[in-house]
Design brief:
two-stranded antiparallel ribbon, mainly alpha, 14 helices
Length: 304
Amino acid sequence: MQEFGGSVYDFHLGWCAAHRELSGNKVTGNRRFDLFLPNFTKLAKYPAPVRLLAFLVTLALFWLPIAIPIYWLGNDPNLVTILTMGLLFGGFLLLTPWWGKQLYQQPRLLQSYGLVRTRQNGIDLFKGLVTGLLMTLSLFTLQGLLGWLKFQTPALALWQLIGEGLASALGIGLAEELVFRGWLLEELQRDYSPRLSLWTSAIIFALLHFTKPLPEMIRMLPAFPALLLLGLTLVWAKWSTRGRLGLSIGLHAGLVWGYYIINVGQLVQYSGQVSPWITGVDGNPLAGGMGLLFMGFLAYYMKN
């Protein structure tokens, strides 16, 4: 804690020194702009929490001036969310290479996270996508065979569900894997052991997906262990492919894709024979015992 506080204090002193230099000397052009930036050589040596916070603050400074007017002027909440989150991820993609060049002299930081355009990474992506999709569909099929739910005619055209679900799932998988198994995990691993980085990133992933009003968090409590296990599984998937993100993105997208088809298409109706704590609270398979069991099988497979 003392190390963290001292680093923040030193970082603040660096900014103050730059301000004094700007006030006491005549500077122009790029030199004037550079004085408002932190000392990236020193920042690279700060603990991971400081570096992570500095990156998020920088990203927010560019994103908020655009996002706030959209929130104010937008009438469709879904469209507002899509636009603002899309802009946020776009800002992340633009900021990351520049950040890597300034801090670590690594202009291709996204590639070091595991986002590489290779045939093997594409194969990994496909394998993960199929595995995630089949696991989700198998979970619901098993519950159907046990009489816990029954399948019904989809509310939308099946081709529409499949196409829209795949596009959404790939976007979510790409964004979240780059952030959690890319940026966050790699920053942690610069300072900490693989084991500590694994558990820290998985806990942060679960907590951020679990952040809700307190009564809702208590009601959805069964989902937290599965979210934590999912965070661990996706890290193991990355490590099992020598640091490539293809398998992690595919697994994440496949799970989302399968649930999108089932949920949005309203393909199942629960019989009520067993508790939602087994089948999943609010129909969310991760919030039930069966989903946790299936996730455990997947985690064991990826770890070994």
